[in-house]
Amino acid sequence: MELVQFIGVIAVVLLFTKHFQPIQPTKDRLVGWLIDKIVWLGMKWSPLLNLTQVVKLLTCPKCLSFWTLLYLTHSIFIAATGAIVAMVVDNILVKTQIND
Fold first, then answer.
1. Contact 82, 6 (CB under 8 A)
2. Cβ–Cβ under 8 Å, residues 64 and 13
3. Over the stretch 28-45, which tens digit does the pLDDT of each residue have?
């Protein structure tokens, strides 16, 4: 995987999970619906339908970048590096937005 593609995956993940405002209301409604289903089911479902992991995947840039890069590259090392880079970039973005 080239560096541009690596950074591109992380950029898309960060935009999807937190920073691209036009899709955030739709994503938030989906996450809210999933949380309602979790509460309604009372956390008593089969491990195959673990909705809390889906919620985490939709809201956590570190998790989504890890699983996306693992799927694309089949390399645990690239996926782990991508997760760390996504976490660092997300923290930098959050800190710069707070200071503005």
1. yes
2. yes
3. 998 888 878 777 766 655
CB contact at 8 A, 57 and 64:
yes
Query: Sign (positive/negative) of CA torsion 84, 87, 92, 93?
Result: positive
With beta carbons less than 8 A apart as the criterion, state whether 26 and 69 touch.
no
Determine how many CB atoms are found less than 10 A away from the CB of residue 2: 7
For the chain, domain boundaries: 3-95
How far apart (Å, rounded) are the C-alpha atoms in residues 69 and 3? 12
The residues near 49 (Cβ < 8 Å, ≥ 6 apart) are: none
pLDDT at position 46 is 52
Both tokens assigned to 89: 């970039």
